[in-house]
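Q: what does this look like with thiamine diphosphate bound?
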Amino acid sequence: MPPMKRLDALRAVYDRLGDSAVVTIMGAVAAELQSIGHRPNFFYLQHAMGLASSVGLGIALSKPAVPVVVFDGDGSLLMNLGGLSTLARYKPANLIHVVFDNESLLSVGGFPTATGTCTRLAEVAAASGVPRTACATTIDEFVTEFTAAQSAGELTTLVAKVDAVGPAAFVTDLGLLENRFQFQRYLQAR
Ligand SMILES: Cc1ncc(C[n+]2csc(CCOP(=O)(O)OP(=O)(O)O)c2C)c(N)n1
């Protein structure tokens, strides 16, 4: 079992997210980040599985001065592997693509994904043309790699191996539309 919990990883970099537009996938990650503390610069992409990196890419290209952080999942990335090629094609220097790889579709019951047996996502990202890739299996490694990515000024995919555990519940009191309009206003002001 990998010795890192995603919630602890999020807590460890939370204070480094204040200046960034942050996009997460749905389910467990979204609820965990909200449990630490929602901010207007956080957008939780509900339902559109696989498209968080694409939303992050759009923001990064249209707002090149805004640092963008995407919190993706292994199942979500596998659902839209072409997203890596599109990221690599445009190589936004202001985008950090974090993949929390729990080897599981945790949010729908914990079915295993192929990253536990055969598919190595950092290598897939590199082979897709992403210029910087990194891996982390501990909190220290994660913080080191995340911090390095923030100062690198180059598109980075950081794959963090985490335990397949999540929050007790995924529904929060932040409405989807409220999040959407709040985030839109945040981006307009940047
Ligand atoms: C197109 C599509 N298929 C299926 C789902 C249902 N679904 C929601 S979350 C999820 C699993 C996501 O897995 P992963 O990205 O690994 O994140 P984790 O839940 O493990 O944190 C699935 C299958 C969906 N939202 N959209």
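The two ends are 41 Å apart (CA to CA). The longest helix spans residues 139-152.
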